[in-house]
Amino acid sequence: MRIVIAEDSVLLRAGLIKLLETSGFEVPAAVGEAEGLLAAVAEHRPDAAIVDVRMPPGFTDEGVRAALVLRQEFPEVAVLLLSQYVEERYAADLLATHTSGVGYLLKDRVADVSAFLDALRRVAAGGTALDPEVVSQLLLRRSSSPLERLTPREREVLALMAEGRSNAGIAGALVVSESAVAKHINNIFSKLDLPHAEADHRRVLAVLRFLDGDST
User: Fold this and answer.
1) Does 123 share its domain with 184?
2) Model pTM score
3) 151 and 207: one domain?
4) From 15, 54, 137, 165, which residue has the greatest number of CB atoms within 10 Å?
5) CA distances from 182 to 67, 159, 205 (A)
């Protein structure tokens, strides 16, 4: 699997390169600014890009904007955003236009090597991965209908869905059967008024509803 890195911190960039290469990934390019990211992806066509949210010259949302352009021009390239702080709107921005191959993690999560690599592989394979801290803060903030219809257990399931976990992963985390998880997910779809559609697409719609707290 080939990964391009866009991170302005020289130390973190070097650390990511070493971590990925020793874990069996190939890193054809690692750059320090957003413009270089787009050029590197165009040249190397990687499986995924790891992108810092805030990059030169303004250190605001340059990485996010570059990631949105990247997904528009190279939709086959997955994107995993890294951020120092919880700014869940950036995850929502990506998910609003692309329902697969996207992730948002806090930089501290890199220290948990196995969890970070699992999230990267999941995103590169077309899944999603949201940082548990982002999901936790969203749970505290969202109280508008129809999310209020969900039971506490259903909200737990939806939170784990938002992290990008599979039914088996959710079952393991909650110590319940996969059939129980499937029942909870069907209840979530019904209570959030989501139309019948391909299963993975409905999961993404549920997560989007969770992210923006929209009652429509």
Assistant:
1) no
2) 0.69
3) yes
4) 165
5) 33, 14, 16
Per-residue model confidence as pLDDT tens digits over 148-162? 788 889 988 988 888
Of the three residues 90, 109, 130, the one that is the final residue of a domain is 130
Tell me how many domains the chain contains: 2
Computed over its alpha carbons, how large is the radius of gyration of the chain?
A: 17
The domain in which residue 103 lies consists of 2-130
135 within some domain: no
52: left (phi over 0), alpha (psi -120 to 50) or beta: beta
Q: What is the mean pLDDT of residues 198-209?
A: 67
198 contacts: CB under 8 Å, gap ≥ 6: none
Distance CA 153, CA 211 (A): 18
CA 67, 90, 18, 75 dihedral sign is negative
Co-location of 58 and 108 in the same domain: yes
Domain CATH for 167: 1.10.10.10
**Helical segments of the chain, H only:** 10-22, 34-44, 62-73, 88-97, 113-124, 132-141, 152-163, 167-174, 178-191, 199-212
Cα–Cα distance for residue pair 55/52, rounded to 1 Å = 7
The CA distance from 176 to 159, in Å, is 16
Domain-located, residue 207: yes
- The identity of residue 14, as a single letter, is A
Q: Would you say 48 and 123 are in contact if contact means Cβ atoms under 8 Å apart?
A: yes
**CA dist 150 to 131, 139, 156, Å?**
21, 12, 10
